[in-house]
Write a structure and sequence with these properties.
heterodimer, A: alpha+beta, Rossmann fold, Dna Ligase, domain 1, five-stranded parallel β-sheet, 18 helices, 22 strands, B: about 170 residues, mainly beta, Glycoprotein, Type 4 Pilin, OB fold (Dihydrolipoamide Acetyltransferase, E2P), eight-stranded antiparallel barrel, 1 helix, Biotin_lipoyl (chain B)
């Protein structure tokens, strides 16, 4: 077993990993940038050390500092979470060289699979189906333009070191290509420290279907079935579910076998995700391998009963996979909705501020993976994910209904979030029918506005605000906000006005 | 007590009076008899004309946030003196001559300098936050009159970044 794990991340995933470590009795070390000094992951870890200023390159991407803290604190392993250094093979190599266990794949596997072009060539040689596109990356814009013309528009620009949609641009004509290239390169440089991009054929209205894989150091590889992640905004997933409504047993078995083959070809170890695009004819193409724990891993945990993060820790310390493929039998249906600090009415612009009030849903089959608390600040420095709401139930329709109810009971006040938007997505008849594809959001929710299911809600909200303001004038509220998380209690202060309690509640 | 709250650019006039059974609240010309059952400092149950509604509420400065049945509203209290800087303060005919920050963030790229000729849709600057880039485009054909930000500057949403002037000049 690992002795002490440094979690080189922040937010909900750092919290998730720290909780898993606590449950198996491994002490944890948190790291944080200045703006995260009182974050949930810092509160939960056994030890916490500052990384300094907030910009990612100086904090959560600062390899030297993180390695120094690992050594100084006596950690023998580093869990990178997702994002930041999770798929940076230089970091993994550094861990290997310094004698630290990296909870994830080897640097060689991450290097190969992180290089989209090299992994593509490797997969083509192994007979894995891939999307038509460039065979080599070129820095020269003229050559990229030429390649795009050869493949035929529409094309997709992708960052060679990328993931999560960063640096990705769909381009429908040559006129748009040059500006899109410039933006994609800059975004890629900022997110991954590498501005190499390539182009491939853009497949219209595909489904995004991925398989969770697990591999140990003795060459045993299993898959934990699929997740469908077609509901995306800006090429980033916001709703995921398992099982996928478009797979029958035969296709599911075939894709699972290909996923395992991909892992074998790459000499993969630990947890990973093999992503495919599934087109409307039922043909599927290898997209990439995410060499890390995936944001949406909980839905697989809900249906298979396997704790992926705990297994990551066990596999990293050299344990074999404890289950055989035929013993992994998923049950029921699970859906995840990602709660982002974004304004869904305004092109999903990030929203910042202090969370003034938080109430999370609870109940059977409801799981909430969160990195926030009432009183915490959401800053502009990092990915705006706040929490993930995950539900499970016997079948898809029941899970969908549970998700709608849970989202309705989820309240975050003080910043804009995607909660109301997610409710409308999950309530949409096309989602209910299982007709999902990666253009679902632009197609059905282009100019989305929060409807407010009843016009009377606005009046109720207005009169509530009026009463609250009456009891809690702005000056007092301003002082309270400035003095931190201790909220004033107007109900205590006013004493005798508690009239009519219970009246009319029948 | 009377107050004006703004929501989605609409202003609502509200009045709150103590009544024998709680409050009488007027919203525009509608009158509600409301009793309040407190639950915690940010949560209460309202009984309005016999129906029970669970409310979560919080405020910061002049903003009040209210959640009703999972829908969230953010109201701004009308300010007696002065408004925040931004395009809303500008006379209508000036608004279309400015390029404003689409979100709070850092200016990562500035493509123009004063006097440059620009076409509508031309990318004037790029603002980045949370690793997401947003292009600030020219709203009109014209010339760059004033550049009010520099690369690496932090900007707020709605902040005027670049002023343009139209046509011939």
């Amino acid at each position: 077993m690992l002795k002490k794990v440094l979690v080189a991340n922040r937010g909900e995933i750092a919290v998730r990993i720290i909780r898993a470590c606590r449950e198996v009795g491994i002490p944890t070390v948190a790291v944080y940038s200045d703006v995260d000094h009182s974050s949930l992951h810092v509160q939960l870890a056994n030890e916490a050390y500052s990384l300094g200023p907030p910009p990612p390159l100086e904090s959560y991407l600062n390899i030297d500092k993180i390695i120094d803290i690992a050594k100084m604190s006596g950690a023998d392993a580093i869990h990178p979470g997702y994002g930041f250094l999770a798929e940076n093979y230089h970091f993994t190599k550094r861990c290997e060289d310094e004698g630290l266990i990296f909870v994830g794949a080897t640097s060689e596997a991450i290097r190969l699979l992180g290089n989209k072009l090299e992994s593509r060539e490797t997969m083509i040689r192994a007979g894995i189906p891939v999307i038509p596109g460039m065979e080599t990356a070129v820095r020269d814009t003229a050559a990229l333009v030429q390649q795009a013309s050869r493949i035929g528009y529409p094309v997709l620009i992708k960052a060679a070191s990328g993931g999560g949609g960063k640096g990705m641009r769909a381009v429908s004509s040559q006129a748009e290509l040059e500006r899109a290239l410039e933006g994609a390169r800059r975004e890629s440089k900022s997110a991954f420290g590498d501005d190499t991009v390539y182009v491939e054929k853009f497949i219209e209205r595909p489904r995004h279907v991925e398989f969770q894989i697990l591999a140990d150091h003795s060459g045993n590889t299993v898959h934990l079935f699929e997740r469908e992640c077609s509901i995306q905004r800006r090429h980033q997933k916001i709703v995921e579910e398992t099982p996928c409504t478009a797979l029958d047993d035969q296709l599911r078995r075939k894709m699972g076998e290909v996923a395992i083959e991909v892992a074998r070809v790459a000499h993969y170890t630990n947890a990973g995700t093999v992503e495919f695009l599934l087109d409307q004819d039922g043909d599927f193409y290898f997209l990439e391998v995410n060499t890390r724990v995936q944001v949406e891993h909980p839905i697989t945990e809900m249906t298979t009963g396997i704790d992926i993060v705990k297994l990551q820790l066990a596999l990293a310390s050299g344990d074999p996979i404890p289950v055989k493929q035929q013993d992994i039998v998923p049950r029921g249906h699970s859906i995840e909705a990602r709660i982002y600090a974004e304004d869904a009415e305004n092109d999903f612009m990030p929203s910042f501020g202090t969370i003034l009030f938080l109430q999370e849903p609870a109940g059977p089959g409801i799981r909430n993976d969160t990195g926030i608390y009432a009183g915490c600040d959401v800053t502009m420095h990092y990915d705006p994910i706040l929490a993930k709401l995950i539900v499970w139930d016997e079948n898809r329709e029941m899970a969908r209904s549970r998700m709608l109810t849970a989202l309705r009971d989820y309240t975050i006040l003080g910043i804009k979030t995607t909660i109301a938007f997610l409710r409308d997505v999950i309530a949409h008849p096309e989602f209910a029918a299982g007709n999902t594809h990666t253009d679902f959001i632009p197609e059905h929710f282009a100019q989305w506005r929060e409807a407010g299911d009843e016009p009377a809600n606005l009046d109720v909200a207005l009169l509530s605000a009026a009463i609250y303001r009456h009891l809690n004038p702005p000056r007092a509220a301003g002082r309270a906000a400035a003095s931190g998380p201790a909220f004033p209690n107007p109900w205590n202060a006013t004493g005798e006005w508690e009239i009519g309690q219970g009246k009319g509640a029948d | 007590m009377e107050l004006n709250l703004t929501f989605n650019n609409e202003e609502y006039r509200l009045g709150v009076e103590r009544a024998e059974d709680g409050y009488e609240v007027t919203v525009g010309d509608r009158i509600y008899q409301v009793s309040v059952r407190p639950i915690s400092s940010n949560t209460f149950s309202l009984v309005i004309h016999g129906a029970n509604r669970l409310i979560h509420i919080a405020s910061a400065g002049r903003a009040t946030y209210v959640a009703v049945d999972g829908r969230q509203f953010c109201f701004q209290e009308a300010t007696p003196g002065g408004r925040k800087h931004g395009t809303r303060d500008l006379p209508i005919d000036r608004r279309e001559l400015t390029a404003i920050a689409p979100m709070p963030g850092r200016v990562v790229k500035l493509n123009v300098t004063e006097g440059d000729r620009v076409e509508r849709g031309h990318t004037l600057a790029v603002v980045e936050a949370m690793k997401m880039e947003n292009e600030v485009r020219a709203p009109i054909d014209g010339y760059v009159d004033r550049v009010l930000v520099r690369e690496d500057d932090m900007v707020n949403v709605g902040q005027v970044m670049i002023e343009l002037k139209s046509g011939e000049d």
